[in-house]
């Protein structure tokens, strides 16, 4: 790359390589093909070096974030380094050429690398100190796509997450929807990237408390993972599918997902009791729930998976709420239900626990958060929960009665939508014996 791609002729390349012109054209087709092969090889080497060095040198997300630049700096000290090959080739290449496409792939990979670091932040209270999601979001936001470059679902996901961390849910909601829709439209099949996009889209749907999108995305991820025999993506799909069924009230379907997931985890030498805990709490099994809370806490500590503690807290809250222990229920949840929280499905329960334990100001605060969520994600479930939450804090009996009727109407709409989706699913894939979306409400 000393003299650039355009200025160096094919004859010079043949002379230095010691090959016949016919051989060069047979292997690469033309000069663009040769440059494309060179850039692809260089990108593969850079990617392998980055993956290897980040794993060997750095432990925490903060270290890995900064380590990206340290590892890249190693290339700058190599003998013969004369600047970024991709920038140089792009500057010389014709618009729309295969060379430009390879350079765009390399830039897209850099963005996906930061997306992976964002994913590493999901471990909540057990995450290593230092880097915050906002730190990663600022880096991601500083890496816009080149003008004219096609956006992948991963690009939409990065942009949505960055907007969420830096600007809040109201600003990020349209981008979260755009990311979810981009993943739904993607037809790339069971690739590694596709599974990453589906997992991230499931998380985005949870942030929006969109039970319909969560269910559809989890079902697709589960189906693709089974087709590909991809165990880790299947495990992630079962987490989201189980949560979807739990929220829908189909405890039997949720339990099936969690039992299979626990078997996968145990086959890899670990324990996973969170699913059993959630189902036990939803069934009101107090003794079993309390025993499993301790088991989940120990497992989360051993595996560094703080997200389990957040959902264990919610399980305790749900159990205590069902038993009429309202203060204990409210005090069980220590995690904040902020814009980026995946615990928004719990907002209505927190309203009831706070209001019935005398925390009227806290209850109203949760109502306001639920209202803000519903404004950007007006699903039948969210609309119904908001009406119910407002009825709980209302001091007027007639107003409360009207709000409860609104909540029931939204639940009926949700039931009808669920049945329509189940029928559509049967038409699309009649071979499926029991589709996840065929829900039997227990609540």
Q: What's the SSE blueprint?
A:
Layout (H helix, E strand, L loop, with lengths): L9 H8 L3 H8 L2 H27 L3 H16 L8 H8 L5 H22 L13 H9 L11 H15 L1 H17 L6 H16 L3 H18 L2 H18 L2 H17 L6 H9 L3 H18 L3 H16 L3 H7 L14 H10 L3 H17 L3 H14 L3 H32 L15
How is this structure best described in words?
The protein is mostly helical and 443 residues long. Among the domains are: 1-129, Tetracycline Repressor, domain 2 (Orthogonal Bundle), CATH 1.10.357; 271-333, no CATH class. 73% of the residues lie in helices and 0% in strands. Helix 7 crosses helix 8 and helix 9 packs antiparallel against helix 10. The longest helix has 32 residues, at 397-428. The radius of gyration is 26 Å and the shape is elongated.
Number of helices: 21
Helix and strand pattern: HHHHHHHHHHHHHHHHHHHHH
Radius of gyration, taken over Cα atoms and rounded to an integer in Å: 26 Å
CATH superfamily of one domain: Tetracycline Repressor, domain 2
Structural classification: mainly alpha
Dominant shape: elongated
Give the C-level CATH assignment of one domain.
Mainly Alpha
Helix content: over 70%
End-to-end distance, in Å?
67 Å
Number of strands: 0
Largest sheet descriptor: none
Let me know the average pLDDT: 82
Strand content: under 5%
CATH topology of one domain: Tetracycline Repressor, domain 2
Q: Low-confidence spans: pLDDT under 50, at least 5 residues?
A: 122-129, 429-443
CATH-derived architecture of one domain: Orthogonal Bundle
